[in-house]
Amino acid sequence: MIPAENQTVARKCVLIVEDDPLSMKVVSAIIAAQGYHVLQAMDGARGFELARREHPDLIITDVQMPGISGLEVSRRLKADEATRDIPIIVTTAYLLDEKEIRASGCDGFMAKPITISEFLELLETIMRMPRAARDID
Ligand code: MN
Question: Which of the residues 52, 64, 70, 78 has an alpha carbon 20 to 30 A from that of 100?
Answer without folding.
Answer: 52
